[in-house]
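Please check the following for our workbook:

***
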Amino acid sequence: MKTLKNFPYAHVLVLGLAKSGTAAAQLLLDSGVKVRINDLKADIDQPAVRQLIDQGADIVTGGHPLSVLDDIEYVVKNPGIPYENPIIEEAVTRQIPIVTEIELAGFLHEGQLIAVTGSNGKTTTTTLIHEMIKADQQPVAVAGNIGHVSCEVARSTTADETMVTELSSFQLLGTETFRPSISVWLNLYEAHLDYHHTLENYHRAKAKITENQTPEDTLVYNADDEKIKSFLPEVKAQLVPFSIKERGQGAWADDEMIYFKEEPIMNKDEVVLVGEQNLQNILAAVAAVKVNGIRNESIEHVLKTFTGVPHRLQFVTEKNGRLFYNDSKATNILATSYALKSFRQPVILLAGGLDRGTSFETLVPHLKAVKAMVVFGETADRMLETAGKAGIEKTVKVDTMKEAVDQAYQFSEEEDVILLSPACASWDQYRTFEERGDMFIEAVHKLK
């Protein structure tokens, strides 16, 4: 496996372990760099942590003493650690560079790098790009916020291999020299203000995906997003737009076809993924891979067979004329409104979850096609009130996902859509949104 060559720092602090910190520490140790680890709750008896210690890592647990910065030249921090952390604030005072592990991946990967960011749709778009390149029988690896640590994946990539990586604003904020060959900027909504504090800070973090690009590189961007377009005067890369509104440039679509510039790619009716949001993701992926020279046949094959990333408007199955979709990742009103706009058929909506005090008033206009609602979790009663305001007469409150699916099926008729799109986080009843979605899928398959 590859290691860092000519790395200019001799002593590095890895702040926060988890997957990304463990991978970064392992890479640094293998590269002959002296490593100190600071993690509040690290279990030194865990095999992965014990291996780092056995290789010479110095580890400090149970607190964040400022002394962990003594003799440190570089800090690799876990993306989720805020910049108000005392260690980070002190590192800034001492003018020590602070990065996330994707900066290390940029040092390692020698081939083409495609990076994807946006407030919504990152995982689906990253997966589509990866699958399209793979279908074209080109060497490709996938990494980043999609579940595979970038600096770990980059250790085994080759110079002729494309690496596709999904990146959050947290990860991008910790970059200095990171430079994708092709960057993809999907959209820009209000998000993560508890971390970034202001919308401007959040937007600037996202814009770092193209900050180091040159005229040899490409930015694929959403031409329908005015906030993204406001950054274009600063961009040095070649610009390739995608749009569901404008025609003729970059990737676009009319009522019948998907195009790249003036070239027809495929018929829209043959695409498995549903919804306007997914169409944007598809067009972004098409633009990225066409820039990369991928054949239309490979694009078409993926779009005819790809049923979606798990828990993101994922088609589950058809039973007795009913279509079941798992959108457990819809943990806010915006995501659920996008899901509801994806269907022309009547919808039985399964919704509810953790109560964060959010008003559901803005969900009401999007419930026009909903014929029945099954609600659960802490927000169940508030969801029932929302259904009443939308004029939905068929409603029921349940305790379990099995009950929810059974009741939804009883409300349904042939050609209806039964949709799990909760508009709430899952932590009141489930450990993760994935667990919630898996329970839905299990209940659907057990339906008699």
About this structure: DSSP finds 16 helices and 20 strands in the chain. Residues 80 and 110 are 27 Å apart (CA to CA). The radius of gyration is 23 Å. The first strand starts at residue 11 and ends at 15.
